[in-house]
Amino acid sequence: MKNGADRRIAEASSLAELEGDRALLGRTSTAERVADILRDRIATGFFPPGTRLSEDSVKGALGVSRNTLREAFRLLTHERLLVHELNRGVFVRVVTVDDLNDIYRVRALVECGAVRGLGKPPYPLEAVESAVLAGERAAQARAWQDLSTANIRFHQGVVALAGSPRADELMRGVLAELRLVFHVMDDPRRFHAPYLVRNRHILEVLQSGDALEAERLLGSYLEDSRLQLADAYAQRVSES
Question: Which residue, 4, 86, 135, 143, is most buried by CB atoms nearer than 10 A?
Answer without folding.
Answer: 135
